[in-house]
């Protein structure tokens, strides 16, 4: 069988006396999309931060391509070179142009040559419809454009795994569609992704695997058809019912 790109085994994480992740097991196969759903505070963002070693786990293990990256001897910087991350806050450097933002990590971290980094950045910007924004500064871009630049920056390091944390949460509704369209394209290109999202229709459309988190535990997992169409756990059913009442349909894409 194909080795999972990402594997979590009984991962636990606490902040103070609060257990935030409870014995989380997860496998993500190559070229697949896993969507993490659940209410705010359910542990989705913390899980992603633990995968990228931004948070130290208390117990369990995380593996990337079969290598345990949570081993204390692991060089976290080397691991992060293999993982791209996009957060809901764009985190672009305001004093740098779009092109400078995108080429920074390839040049400084991956030691790519200036011209090679520039060519790769311009290629990615063109793919995401931003070729005319290379020399613009972030404050001249819309929220959707800034988020697309953040995705380009993550892709510029040619990651093995891409983590997306509520990337539409800070966007106006009319800008959500353009960012989700980019994620659809990345799926079609075979990018392996883990997405924490509140966009239920989108999760149903693009995910190969859906995990419902509640109280830091994965209470239910399965295909989108299984989790959205025939949820088995009462807590999953209650969460999806609340989402429906809030006006976020799970039966069709959001855009």
Automatic annotation (TrEMBL):
Superkingdom in the source lineage: Bacteria
Record's GO cellular component terms: plasma membrane
MF terms in GO: ABC-type amino acid transporter activity; ATP binding; ATP hydrolysis activity
SUPFAM superfamilies, per database record: P-loop containing nucleoside triphosphate hydrolases
Matching InterPro entries: AAA+_ATPase, ABC_ATPase_HisP-typ, ABC_transporter-like_ATP-bd, ABC_transporter-like_CS, MetN_ABC_transporter-like, P-loop_NTPase
Subcellular location field: Cell membrane
Coiled coil: none
Membrane topology: Peripheral membrane protein
Domain ABC transporter: 6-240
Keywords for the protein's UniProt record, in alphabetical order: Amino-acid transport, ATP-binding, Cell membrane, Membrane, Nucleotide-binding, Transport
Pfam families assigned to the protein according to its UniProt record, in alphabetical order: ABC_tran
Family: Belongs to the ABC transporter superfamily.
Name of the protein in question: ABC transporter
Organism: Wenjunlia tyrosinilytica
